[in-house]
Amino acid sequence: MHHLFRLKHALLVVTAAAVLLVACPAMAESYEQKNEGEVVVYAIHATTKYVPGKTDEMVIPPEVFLEGLRGEWVSFQILIKLGYNVASLEDVNVIPSKLMLDGSEKFIDVTAFDFYREWFFDIKANSGGGREVPNHLRRPGLYPDPLIPFKDPFKPGDVPVAAPFSLEKNPGFALIWVDLFIPRDAAPGLYRGSIDFTWRAFSANGQQAETPMPSVDVNLQVWDLDMPHERNIGTSYGMHNWLLRRYHGGPDPDAPSANFDEIVRTYHKVLHQHRMDLTYQKGPVEFKFDDDGELLPVDWTAYDAHMQPRIDGTYFDDTVGVTRFASGMFEPGGGTGSMTEDQYKAAARAFVEHLDEKGWLHRMWTYSTDEPWLNGGDETWARVIHDAGLLHEASDLWKGRVLVTGPMYRGAEDVVDIWCPVTPMYGDWFWLESDYAGRGDYDEHMANGGELWFYNCNANFPPFAGYDIDTTIGYEPRILKWGAWFEKATGFLYWHTNYWSQAGPWVEWQSIANFDVLFARNGDGLLWYPGDSDGYHVDNEGNPIPSGVPEWLSIDGPITSYRMKQIRDGLEDWELFIMADKAGLGDWLRTEIGRAYTKFGTPFYEDCSIEGAYCPAKGEPWTLDENVLLDVRKRVASKLQFTLHPDKYKDPDEPDEPGGEPLPNEDIFGTPEDCIEPGEVTDEDAAETPVDAKTDDLKTSSKSGCSASGSSSLPGAILLAMLSGLLLIRRRNRA
User: Residues 429, 443: contact at Cβ < 8 Å?
Assistant: First the structure.
């Protein structure tokens, strides 16, 4: 087991949605010995993905120290485990207290907490078809991803969903995700409170048993910093409404329920709440021409009615408008349709002039033919260049608007404004012999007003960070956003969030039929899950098929995921980095982040004899020690706080004075020298780990089966051929 899961420090700290955990020997021994026969409660990092049989057991008392900015989400997890004297628990629930500010009557109310039950999938077919990369393994087993809310977030009142719940000896554990939103008006300082538990315990003979009721002590340090209300990062996350219709809105395919549009809106709102914007925002509008081919006056009424609330934020709960959106029209490479080129230019000119008049133009971009380097090559590139040229001829207002999902292409520099390569096509980090534009090559483009975005997909083979469900490294989606900032990107794109297979996302998490075994990654194009199954869920012949949605689950909206929380945390970190950079900390910041991130990844074969190939002995492309990630995050926030308020806060680079009292943001629970390192779960232990009783019926479909193969050492030319094969398979529908 690599050192990612070894908890080396003596403080449990959550730094902006992440936790550092510690245990001093006397405390850990006392707590564990006292409760080992009953029920034990642990607190776990938000960045630690608890994978039974693969994650080290944490021998620690249940106490958390959280840190964050006003207006930011911070998170951690609570693991409940049954001891040998307790066979089951009934009516398990939590009771949070308000968090009181030290030395004050001020507090953060319990409404700032959200609780979720983490649901485990029993993955049989691992991503990559058995290909193994040291320290980045994808193996079958139980993995958490869906986060089922304790209460229905889309209904008024306290409508129970995932809690209270029962816990049996098989599996013998339950995992709770805790979100805490720091109010924007919270005073800086240290807040304290607790999370208590209620349950009824039963012994093996069915008799009710008396058990200690443990409590998680919650300490929250609120930084004297504010997460920006308006977002500074362009995001593009795709979604198809028709796939929602499979699960929501009633069984009549021609007459969905009256609230179906509101159900769709819940998906939009939850995505937005996690700092991700839907790719397309397109209101209805028509461009009509007279008999002479001249453009008639355009009626923008319906278009504006659709767009206005999405731009001004009244469509969302936080009243923050979308940061960027794809036009949904005038997409280079798609041709001019029924319009002549002159008509196309006239309509395109009218469109950007209207957006400019409304003050919306700076948010809009247009999506060229997806991956022209794959979908037609030079011929498609020629169409993209031609059509983008028409837009630039139509109006100078189109400058800055044209996005291409691909690396810089010779001949398109003058008409492509936003280059958006997939991370393995950035530099020579994946193909060692490639000449793709990489670090520094986009600087001139950006200096002239252009942008660099990134995206990831099923071509992100480990050790490239990605969105796989079946990784034991929980923070991969988060470190991916660190890398995007480090490479000077201003946006991030993801092709789909609900690419749900016909079998259903609760039972099948990779689409081998579409992407083949090597490229069908668990969770690719799938970031959340339907919260209901009353829709029209049928096969190609119209026959109903099992949805896999738990029978007791019924909410009119999405079930978020562990990975969505990591993406959100990464986007929050990115905002912090932007703030620190604007405060003049750029050079210091890049050095600091360089402790955790070097590059997006390397080839997926291990060969220490080749320069640039993956060689764990020479170091990883990004840190496998989450404590490094969290320490960097804390130091950046601390440095920024000092920079903005030097009269109130200490410089984190200033040496501590001997014998001084610790500040509120320092380690108050002990030092690493005083503390122990937890044990490790062996392969034998993993073999005996039971499956969650509630996931017994969530088996993968026959499409998920594949034969495992050993790791491979392939030269760059073969890797290129393989990826080309993948991408010929992966003709994706953009949301």
Answer: no
Q: Does the pTM exceed 0.90?
A: no
Q: What is the b/e burial string over 558-578, where b = at least 16 CB atoms within 10 angstroms of the residue's CB?
A: bbbbbbbbbbbbbbbbbbbbb
Token pair of 424 as six digits:
């393995």
pLDDT in tens, 600-610: 999 999 999 99
Q: Quick one: CA dihedral 519, 523, 526, 530, positive or negative? A: positive
Alpha carbon 252 to its chain's center: 34
Q: Is 274 exposed, middle or buried (0-12, 13-18, 19+ CB in 10 A)?
A: buried
Question: Beta strand 189-202 with 215-226: parallel, antiparallel or unpaired?
Answer: antiparallel
User: Where does the pLDDT of residue 716 fall: very low under 50, low under 70, confident under 90, or very high at 90 and above?
Assistant: very low
Burial profile 3-37: b = 16 or more Cβ within 10 angstroms, e = fewer:
ebbebebbbbbbbbbbbbbbbbeebbeebbeebee
Provide the residue count of the chain: 735
663 token code pair: 């500040």
pLDDT band at 56 (very low <50, low <70, confident <90, very high): low
Q: CATH assignment of 3-126+133-228+650-687, given 2.60.40.10, 3.30.70.20, 2.120.10.30, 3.30.420.40?
A: 2.60.40.10
pLDDT in tens, 74-109: 999 999 999 889 999 999 999 999 999 999 999 999
The ranges of the chain annotated as CATH 2.60.40.10 are 3-126+133-228+650-687
